[in-house]
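Subject: DNA-processing protein DprA structure
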Amino acid sequence: MGGGEGERERWARAWLSAVGEPGDGFMYRLVAQEGAVGAVEAVRRGCVPDGLGISERRLDGWRMRVAAADPDAAMFICEQVGGRLLCPGDLEWPSTLGHLREAAPIALWVRGGPDLRQICLRSVSVVGARLASPYGERVAQELGAEMAEQGWTVVSGAALGIDAAAHRGCLAAEGLTVAVLANGIDLAYPPRNSGLLAEIAARGLIVSEWPPGTHPTRPRFLVRNRVIAALTTGTVVVEADLRSGALNTANHARSLGRHLMAYPGNVTSLMSRGCHDLLRSTPPARLVTNSTEVIEEVGRIGEGLTRPDRPTYPRDTLDPDSRQVLEAVPATGGGATPMEIATAASVDLITARSRLSLLHAMNFIERTRTGWRLRKAPPGHPQP
């Protein structure tokens, strides 16, 4: 272990990322007290300072991995795949990871071009079920694309189902996306997403706490979820069953004080039970149905308040008297006289006549031989 102090610290954190498991508060406290280089020496000697609560059993577990730890090989592979090792104190290190306190990462292996800290300043995580329904995948893909179009980074876990759909939607809209993995940045898991992960590496970022060559395990998926939640300003659960790992990410988001949102689904769908449970919990997740509502939650004050897609009709522009007169015009039969309409609308005859002329000019009504009636809309068109 040569080089300057900064390089020795970086080498030590690469070593520790292979010896300890991410999220280990005991390892965090050891590094905080001794520094990364001192922590390496303490583990190698098998002698850690008192007062940190580190048991012999835990220390023995670390030491069993010492022989297999090869930070030089890990950093070489990292460079070969276009990656880099980030450490706390680096300009690219996201300060929001500090909110994890003793569960904060020791280091991050990152693959891709963008600056992790910069692109996560305006980011949201989109997570959900692996066995997603067509509804869930469509919603996640649309949400990923729409968030990208508004300049937001989409963060997820690159799993099958909702995660992959959110990443693909973001990439389709030429946006930035971050995949946080439970394995090394050089491995494609699940294999079916190898093409997706290659595209993310080329245009976005792949992030992991585990050194290259590390394979995923079931507990590691849950451990990495805290990083997904901590990197972003809010988490959206699109679809999840009651035992979905996405709910673990939601719980981390809630404990970190991040915005927590959930999409509603069909009440008969097992894949929406987790979302509905979040919406009923205390405090409840925020119900969202589109990107505008998500941005309204996580964006700056006033951002996302414009609500698109709210249908308007010509009658919405009418003044109160005109709407009242229109309601009094019959839809069928030979029509009604101005006096009959005035009486039904509770307006005077002069007001009725003037509003009838206006409504006729706007194609709401038509004249018959005996009075006025509503104009029939063409087939397939709503009444104006």
